[in-house]
Amino acid sequence: MTIPDNGILHGAYRDATGDLRLLDTNQNPRPDETTVDWAQGLWVGWAQVYMDPNGSSPAVLTRSKNVVGITDGGSTVLVTFNRDINDAVFMASLTDCQSPPSNSPDLPGLVKAVQEGDSGVRVHTYRLTEEGTQPFSEAPRSFSLLVVGP
Fold this sequence. Notes:
Shape: globular
Strand content: over 45%
Number of helices: 0
Order of helices and strands: EEEEEEEEEEEE
CATH architecture of the largest domain: Sandwich
Number of strands: 12
Helix content: under 10%
Structural class: mainly beta
């Protein structure tokens, strides 16, 4: 696995939803995705996190760069980076959502990332329902978070 590839991060986003995922150097995008690359002239931090649907085990940091830890808060996860990210930009996307709730099988999930403190980003996961948004806790899911700063 080679992330990054000589100072370049490779990624792909889904054309229909904008969901972003990191790609290894030998990985190709899916047919419904568009590739995007980032040069590492800037500071880059990223995390891929798996969240247990039942809350029986804590969220797991599956891959990362410049992350010093995560704190599981149920339907939210705090990702803490190894530096101040006040001037950084960031984005998060849900990936690999499985088995949506049986009462709303066609309703998508969404993710919101909010800076918390000088070096953290809290990622909130939701599902859309007919009543609005609800914490997304019924199905296994993962999210990707990318932070780029000076």
